[in-house]
C-alpha cells in the first residue's frame, strides 16, 4: 500500500505514517473519529490523479480533506486521507471581479478578502467562513446565512476542473469538454444521459426532486443537476457540488461572484418565546430583511458568557426568550434608509420583549455577528467535560418551522437531552440543534437512535430534508432512501457506480445501507487540560496558526494530547509513547505561542497558554536556575547579547556561521539561537536622564532594542519616539533601573516560572513608583512587550482598583502617537508606498487601527498582504527554529515582493527581524519612519 502511494507523489516524504501524523490529522469538526492508515499531502492535481489511480488499483479507499470543518463525518477515514488544503490555495480574479477561479484549499475569508477591492464577494456565506475552504464548500454545497438557495455553490458555479476516480481530468469549461468526456469516459457520458432521461420521464420523481431542491438540501446527490442541465459535462459539474468527495477531486472551480453590499444595518430582535419569533418571520422577510438568524434561550445564555457579548444580550434576564438576528443590506445609504423607513411600526407589531435597535456601526454589527457565527463552537464548548457535542441540521418549509421547533423541543425532553439548543437560518426554514452526551454506553446509543428515528419522522412528515447544508456524510446516510424513495435512491446508486466503479472514493459517505452507520465511530474527548478541554475541534484556529504548514495546528495539538490520554485509558502505552516522542518538537517547540488562535476561537482558547505550561512542566533545573539568574542580572544579559551581535558584525560570516551551527549541534537547537547575516548589531542602553518638566507619561523602552539595534543607519524606535514626543511638547519619564527591567515575556514563553515571577515583581514595583500608582500612563515601544506588560501589571491594577485608585494603564507607543502626537505634528511629507506588517500582538491588543492611522501619515499608499499572518519569530523562537518563521512567512513574502514598496514597517523589533529575513527588505518600526518624514519639509 505505502509503496503505491509513494510512487504516486514526487517525494516519499509526502506520505506520512507516524502515529502523530495519523492522529493529529484524524479529526475534523464532526463527532466522528476514524484513524487513517496514511496521510498524503499531494503537491498538485496530477499527483491527486495518480493517488486516485493507485487507490482503485490497490482496492484502497481514499478520502479527500481540505479545511476539516465538515460536521457530518464526510472527511474522516480509517484508510488513506489526502490533504488538499496545503498546496491548493491559488486565486485568479476574472472580469474585474465578476468571476473568480479558485483552488480548493482557499478559505472563504481569504477569497472574499481578494474580491473586496472589486466590490464583490463569494455567494455562499457559511458561519465557518474563516476556516472552511472552497473545496469543502463545493463538496457540501454549503450555503450560509444570506445566500439561501439563490447564491449557493450550485447556483453560482460556472465550471469545475475535476479529477475523476480513474485519474481522468475534465475541465467542464473547455470547448471540447463533452467530446473529451465521451472519448475518455464513455460509460459515464452515456450513463448521465440515460439517468437524466429516466428521471425526466418519471413525473413523480421530478416532483420530488423539484420540491426537495426548492429548499436548502444536501441530502443525497444533487439529482436536480439531471433536470437543470442538458449536457453531460454540465451535469457532471453540478453533480460534483454536494458530492462530499465521493465522485472526484475538485482541482479548481470558477464561480460567478455577487455584489458586496456596501451598507448594512443589523439588530437583535428579542421575543418572549420561540413561537412568537417564528411567527414574525413572514413579516420580516416581506420587509426586505436579507438575514434572519434564530437563537433560542440556551444559545442566548451561552452568548452572555462570551467576551464582547452585545449589551442587548448581556443585560437579558433569559427565561424562554428567543432572538432573531436581522440584517438589512443595500448598495447605497439611500436604499438602506428606504428599506428601514417603515421599521418602527413594523417592529411594534412583532410582540418583542425588548426594544430593538438597528445599527450600521461596524463594531456593533461585528459584535452581533461574532455571537452568531461562533454559536456552534461556543455552545458545544460549554458542554460538560468528557462529552461530545453532536450537531444536527434540518430544513422544513418555512410555514412549518414553528411547529417543527416546538415538536423538537418536546423530543428533547422525551429523550432526556437537557440544555439542547436550536439556532439557524430561520428565513430559509433551516435550523441546527445540538445534542450533548458521551454517546458511548449502550443506553446512550439507544437513546440517540430512538431520538433520531423520531426526528426523522418529524422532519420528513413536514416534507423537509434531513440535511440542509452540512452534507449527508455518515450522519444521515442510512436515511437517504427513506427521504427520496427507492427509485431516486436507485438513481443515486447508479451515479456512484458510474463515477467510481471500484467504490474506493470516500466509501460509506452519502449512501450506506447499514441502518446503524450513524451510531458507529463516535469520538470521545477525554479531559486533558483545563486550558483546552472545551475545544470542539471546529478548526477555526487553523488558518491563523503560523505553524500550520510545517508541524501542528492548535486543533491538532489538542487532539493529539487527547489521543495520548485515550491510549493510556485503552492500555496502549506503546502508542502513547510514540505520540509523546514526536509531540515535543511538533507541538511544544514549534508553537509560536502568539495567541492568534484565541482571536479566531469561538470559545477563546489560547493554545499558547497550554504550550507555555507544557514548557514550564518540562523545564529542567539547570534552565530554571539560568533564567532565574538572568532575571536578577537582566541588564548584563541584554547588553551582553548586544555586544555579541556587535562582535559578530565585525567578523566574516564564514567564521561566525560555522561556529554557531556547531554550537547548535552540540548544545541543541532549542538552546542556541541561529545566527544569520541579516541580524543587526547590538542596540543601545535604555536609561535616560530624568526630565526637568513634569512627565506626561512613563516610557518603558523594550529590552529587545538593547539586544537588537536598528536596521541600517536608522536611529531606532527609542530615539524616534522620544523625538516625536519632544516635537509635540510631551515629556517622558523612563523608570529608574530600566536596563534591568522587562515585561517578563521571555520567561513566560519559555515556561520559566520562577524567573518570570522575579522579573515581574521588579518591573511592577518600578512602574508603580514611576507612575505614582497609576497617575501616569505607561508607554511601551514594542507591541509584544506592551501585551506582556498588560499581563504583568494585571494583578497590581486589581489591587489598586480595590483600594479605589486608578489601575495601571499600558499603551503601545503607536497608540500614544496616534492619539497624542499626530494631531500636533502638522503636515508630513509622505512616502509613495509602505508595506506594513501588523503583528500578532498588535492584533490581540486592538492596535491595528492606530497602526494603520500612523502608516497612513507616513505613506500615501499602505499595503498589507492579503496573506498576512504572524511571522512566528516570537522572541527568539525564529532563531531557535528558523524553519518555523520560513514557513509562516513564505506566502506573505511573495506578496510583499510584488508590492515594490518604498519602505517596510512593523511595530515590534523581533517581528521586523523576521520579516527582514523573509523578504530581504529592511523592516523598521513605523515610528522611526514617521520621525524621519517629519524632518522633511512638505512639498507645496
What order do the helices and strands come in, and which of them pair?
Layout: H1 2-7, E1 15-16, H2 19-26, E2 38-40, H3 45-58, E3 62-65, E4 80-83, E5 91-94, E6 99-102, H4 108-116, E7 120-121, H5 134-140, H6 153-156, E8 157-163, E9 169-171, H7 177-184, H8 186-200, H9 203-212, H10 225-228, H11 232-240, E10 249-256, E11 258-259, E12 263-271, H12 274-279, H13 281-286, E13 291-295, H14 297-304, H15 311-314, E14 322-330, H16 333-339, H17 343-348, H18 362-373, H19 375-381, E15 388-395, H20 401-414, E16 421-425, E17 430-437, H21 442-461, H22 480-484, H23 486-499, H24 554-569, H25 573-589, H26 596-600, H27 607-618, H28 621-632, H29 634-650, H30 653-667, E18 697-700, H31 704-707, H32 717-727, E19 732-733, H33 745-750, H34 753-770, E20 778-780, H35 783-792, H36 794-802, E21 810-812, H37 813-825, E22 831-836, H38 840-844, H39 848-858, E23 859-863, H40 877-880, H41 882-899, E24 903-906, H42 909-919, E25 923-925, H43 926-934
Helix pairs in contact: 2-24, 7-8, 8-11, 8-23, 20-21, 24-25, 28-34, 32-37, 32-43, 37-39, 39-43, 41-42
The shape, in one word, is globular
Mean pLDDT: 94
Q: Which structural class best describes the helix and strand composition?
A: alpha/beta
How large is the count of helical segments? 43
- Kindly provide the radius of gyration, computed on alpha-carbon positions and rounded to a whole number of angstroms: 29 Å
Distance between the termini: 73 Å
Strand proportion, as a percent range, falls in 5-15%
Amino acid at each position: 500500500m505505502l509503496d503505491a502511494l509513494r510512487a504516486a507523489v514526487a517525494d516519499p516524504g509526502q506520505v506520512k505514517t507516524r502515529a502523530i501524523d495519523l492522529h493529529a490529522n484524524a479529526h475534523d469538526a464532526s463527532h466522528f473519529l476514524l484513524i487513517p492508515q496514511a496521510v498524503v499531502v499531494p503537491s498538485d492535481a496530477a499527483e491527486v490523479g495518480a493517488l486516485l489511480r493507485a487507490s482503485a488499483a490497490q482496492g484502497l479507499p481514499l478520502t479527500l480533506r481540505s479545511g476539516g470543518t465538515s460536521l457530518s463525518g464526510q472527511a474522516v477515514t480509517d484508510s488513506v486521507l489526502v490533504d488538499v488544503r496545503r498546496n491548493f490555495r491559488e486565486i485568479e480574479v476574472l472580469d474585474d471581479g465578476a468571476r473568480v477561479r479558485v483552488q480548493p484549499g482557499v478559505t472563504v475569508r481569504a477569497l472574499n478578502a481578494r474580491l473586496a477591492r472589486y466590490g464583490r464577494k463569494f455567494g455562499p456565506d457559511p458561519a465557518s467562513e474563516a476556516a472552511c475552504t472552497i473545496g469543502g464548500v463545493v463538496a457540501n454545497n454549503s450555503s450560509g446565512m444570506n445566500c439561501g438557495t439563490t447564491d449557493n455553490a450550485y447556483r453560482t458555479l460556472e465550471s469545475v476542473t475535476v479529477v475523476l476516480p480513474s485519474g481522468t481530468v475534465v475541465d467542464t469549461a473547455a470547448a471540447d469538454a463533452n467530446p473529451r468526456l465521451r472519448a475518455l469516459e464513455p460509460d459515464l457520458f452515456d450513463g448521465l444521459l440515460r439517468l437524466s432521461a429516466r428521471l425526466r420521464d418519471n413525473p413523480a420523481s421530478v416532483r420530488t426532486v423539484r420540491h426537495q431542491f426548492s429548499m436548502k438540501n444536501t441530502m443525497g446527490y444533487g439529482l436536480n443537476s439531471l433536470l437543470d442541465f442538458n449536457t453531460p459535462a454540465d451535469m457532471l459539474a453540478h453533480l460534483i457540488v454536494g458530492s462530499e468527495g465521493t465522485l472526484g477531486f475538485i482541482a479548481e472551480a470558477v464561480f460567478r461572484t455577487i455584489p458586496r453590499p456596501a451598507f448594512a444595518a443589523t439588530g437583535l430582535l428579542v421575543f418572549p418565546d420561540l413561537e412568537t419569533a417564528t411567527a414574525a418571520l413572514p413579516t420580516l422577510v416581506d420587509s426586505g430583511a436579507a438575514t434572519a438568524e434564530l437563537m433560542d434561550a440556551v444559545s442566548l445564555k451561552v452568548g452572555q458568557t462570551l467576551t464582547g457579548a452585545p449589551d442587548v444580550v448581556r443585560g437579558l434576564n433569559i427565561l424562554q426568550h428567543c432572538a432573531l438576528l436581522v440584517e438589512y443590506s443595500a448598495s447605497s445609504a439611500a436604499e438602506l434608509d428606504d428599506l428601514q423607513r417603515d421599521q418602527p411600526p413594523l417592529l411594534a407589531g412583532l410582540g418583542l420583549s425588548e426594544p430593538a435597535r438597528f445599527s450600521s456601526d461596524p463594531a456593533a454589527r461585528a459584535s452581533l455577528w461574532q455571537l452568531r457565527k461562533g454559536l456552534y463552537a461556543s455552545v458545544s464548548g460549554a458542554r460538560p467535560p468528557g462529552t461530545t457535542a453532536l450537531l444536527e441540521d434540518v430544513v422544513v418549509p418555512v410555514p412549518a418551522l414553528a411547529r417543527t421547533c416546538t415538536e423538537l423541543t418536546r423530543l428533547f425532553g422525551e429523550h432526556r437531552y437537557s440544555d439542547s439548543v436550536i439556532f439557524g437560518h430561520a428565513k430559509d426554514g433551516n435550523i441546527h440543534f445540538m445534542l450533548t452526551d458521551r454517546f458511548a454506553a449502550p443506553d446512550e446509543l439507544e437513546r440517540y437512535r430512538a431520538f433520531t428515528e423520531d426526528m426523522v419522522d418529524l422532519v420528513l412528515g413536514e416534507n423537509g430534508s434531513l440535511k440542509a447544508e452540512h452534507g449527508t456524510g455518515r450522519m444521515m446516510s442510512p436515511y437517504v432512501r427513506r427521504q427520496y424513495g427507492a427509485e431516486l435512491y436507485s438513481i443515486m446508486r447508479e451515479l456512484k457506480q458510474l463515477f467510481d466503479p471500484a467504490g474506493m472514493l470516500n466509501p460509506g459517505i452519502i449512501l450506506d445501507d447499514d441502518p446503524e452507520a450513524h451510531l458507529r465511530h463516535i469520538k470521545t474527548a477525554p479531559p486533558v487540560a483545563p486550558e483546552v478541554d472545551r475545544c470542539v475541534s471546529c478548526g477555526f484556529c487553523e488558518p491563523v496558526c503560523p505553524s500550520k504548514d510545517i508541524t501542528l495546528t492548535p486543533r491538532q495539538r489538542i487532539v493529539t494530547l487527547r489521543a495520548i490520554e485515550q491510549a493510556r485509558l485503552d492500555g496502549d502505552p506503546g502508542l502513547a509513547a510514540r505520540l509523546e516522542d514526536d509531540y515535543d518538537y511538533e507541538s511544544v517547540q514549534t508553537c509560536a505561542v502568539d495567541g492568534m488562535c484565541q482571536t479566531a476561537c469561538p470559545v477563546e482558547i489560547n493554545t499558547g497558554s497550554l504550550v507555555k505550561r507544557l514548557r514550564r512542566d518540562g523545564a529542567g533545573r539547570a534552565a530554571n536556575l539560568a533564567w532565574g539568574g538572568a532575571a536578577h542580572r537582566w541588564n548584563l544579559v541584554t547588553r551582553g547579547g548586544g555586544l555579541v551581535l556587535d562582535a559578530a558584525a565585525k567578523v566574516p560570516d564564514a567564521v561566525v556561521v560555522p561556529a554557531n551551527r556547531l554550537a547548535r549541534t552540540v548544545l541543541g537547537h532549542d538552546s542556541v539561537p541561529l545566527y544569520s547575516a541579516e541580524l543587526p548589531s547590538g542596540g543601545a542602553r535604555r536609561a535616560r536622564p530624568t526630565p526637568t518638566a513634569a512627565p506626561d507619561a512613563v516610557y518603558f523602552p523594550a529590552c529587545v532594542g538593547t539586544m537588537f539595534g536598528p536596521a541600517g543607519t536608522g536611529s531606532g524606535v527609542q530615539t524616534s519616539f522620544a523625538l516625536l514626543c519632544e516635537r509635540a511638547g510631551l515629556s517622558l519619564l523612563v523608570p529608574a533601573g530600566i536596563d534591568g527591567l522587562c515585561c517578563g515575556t521571555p520567561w513566560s514563553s519559555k515556561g520559566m516560572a520562577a524567573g518570570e515571577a522575579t522579573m515581574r515583581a521588579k518591573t511592577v514595583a518600578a512602574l508603580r513608583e514611576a507612575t505614582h500608582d497609576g497617575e501616569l500612563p505607561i508607554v511601551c515601544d514594542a507591541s509584544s512587550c506592551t501585551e506582556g506588560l498588560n499581563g504583568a501589571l494585571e494583578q497590581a491594577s486589581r489591587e489598586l482598583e480595590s483600594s479605589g485608585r486608578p489601575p495601571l494603564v499600558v499603551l503601545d507607543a503607536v497608540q500614544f502617537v496616534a492619539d497624542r502626537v499626530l494631531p500636533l505634528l502638522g503636515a508630513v511629507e509622505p512616502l509613495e508606498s509602505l508595506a506594513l506588517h501588523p503583528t500578532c500582538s498588535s492584533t490581540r491588543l486592538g492596535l491595528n487601527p492606530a497602526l494603520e492611522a500612523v502608516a497612513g501619515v507616513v505613506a500615501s499608499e499602505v499595503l498589507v498582504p492579503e496573506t498576512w499572518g504572524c511571522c512566528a519569530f516570537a522572541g527568539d523562537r525564529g532563531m531557535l527554529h528558523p524553519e518555523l518563521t520560513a514557513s509562516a512567512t513564505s506566502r506573505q513574502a511573495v506578496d510583499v515582493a510584488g508590492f515594490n514598496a518604498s519602505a517596510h514597517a512593523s511595530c515590534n523589533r523581533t517581528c521586523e527581524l523576521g520579516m527582514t529575513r523573509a523578504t530581504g527588505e529592511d523592516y523598521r518600526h513605523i515610528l522611526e519612519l514617521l520621525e524621519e518624514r517629519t524632518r522633511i519639509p512638505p512639498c507645496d
